[in-house]
Amino acid sequence: LGSKPTYPNVKGWKFTEKELTRLLSNRTHSEDLVLFKTAASATEREFGNETYFRGIAEFSNKCEKDCNYCGIRKSHPIVQRFDMSDKEVVDAAKWVAEYGYGCLLLQSGERTVKKENERVSRLIRAIKKETTSKTYPKGIGIILSVGEQKPEVYKEWFDLGAHRYLLRIETTNRDLYHKIHPSFNHSFETRVQCLKSLRDIGYQVGSGVMIGIPGQSLLDLARDLLWYRQMDLDMIGMGPYIHSQHTPMCEEFEKDYWQVQNNVTDKDDWDWRDSDFAQYRDMENWKRYRLTLRMLALTRLMCFDCNIAATTALQAIDPFGRERALEIAANVVMPIVTPKKYRKNYVLYDGKPCVEEGKEECRGCLQARVLSVGKRVVYDQWNDPPHFLRK
Ligand code: SAM
Ligand code: SF4
């Protein structure tokens, strides 16, 4: 299992590309078990049984970009666009403070126009003002996930009080990155540059990849893991890639199944409900899921003191997917606080959970899930990643 760190002067486990590729291809259940248990003890060593909540407000699904996989991409033919009002966002923040989540993640599609950037500034100001209290002398923590922006915009938001930023790299394989994003407004180099700017400004920086993208190899994923270390990330959020109907990547997958594998050429004869197809799609998802658990375990071993999220996408494949992630490597859970009426229009991939629930139900459900694996939620604190605090 690679080379173990010597505690207490820990730097995380060191693996070569070859070792990582080998571990990602574990063939037997017992091989996985050794990996998962080793990661679980690293998680326990760093965090005990503590888990951190971050409320996530998906405040707008309007986006300038057209990522080939995403259920709210600009040219999605069905999704209805929405913007939460400022009051709804601030109310969500106050609720997050009241119930002790400590931090609010503001997530949306990417919009770079001045008016929208000013709106984010306005929201940060209002949230800080409305949530400052004895419990939170600096207001609740604010995490942003609103895509690629100019350094001066990142700086303005940081100066106003946002202190964490999530921007997934999606894949570190440049060719694959360019294959899954339209070329005219996407560049891998810009993405990396944004992450570097965020770090230089002083943010706690989070990134991550999608696992099981068509065309992605185990070597790609091994390199993603090494890249996490190289970028010195504070937070890591990754999950399985899951098809989203009406997106180019999903359509490509359907075409491949019907035309290439089954020689059915008439699109009208394609049927999502076809049981063989459903079985095939589920099997592919299970492979991605298993691979995600291995990626989580290896990430914990290599980046032992980073905050790692148990992402919702895991639960779309396995009803207990988030619990498995918490047992192995994750220490962060993000209950959704978006008002129920908007949730059906923020479905990034098929079968996204928590779409029919409200924030109260998500709170109770996730508390129970955390408790069910013998962990507890730490309330009323920002719970910054130890990795950042040690720098
Ligand atoms: N627009 C911002 C951005 O792209 O950074 C933030 C919101 S975006 C919807 C958040 C993340 O959703 C993306 O980084 C991507 O990894 C994930 N996502 C989108 N479509 C997905 C899919 N089909 N399967 C899994 N994850 C997906
Ligand atoms: Fe927009 Fe983010 Fe979806 Fe890409 S992943 S289409 S930037 S919301």
Can you describe this structure?
The protein is α/β, with parallel strands linked by helices and 391 residues long. The protein has one domain (17-389): Alpha-Beta Barrel (TIM Barrel). Helices cover 46% and strands 10% of the residues. The chain contains 15 helices and 12 strands. The strands form 3 sheets. Strands 2-3-4-5-6-8-10 form a 7-stranded parallel β-sheet. It has a 3-stranded parallel β-sheet with strand order 11-1-12, covered by helices on one side. Strand 4, helix 5 and strand 5 (164-166) form a beta-alpha-beta unit. Iron/sulfur cluster binds at residues 63, 65, 67, 70, 72-73, 109-110, 147.
Tags for this model:
single chain; 391 residues; alpha/beta; TIM Barrel; seven-stranded parallel sheet; three-stranded parallel sheet; 15 helices; 12 strands; binds S-adenosylmethionine; binds iron/sulfur cluster
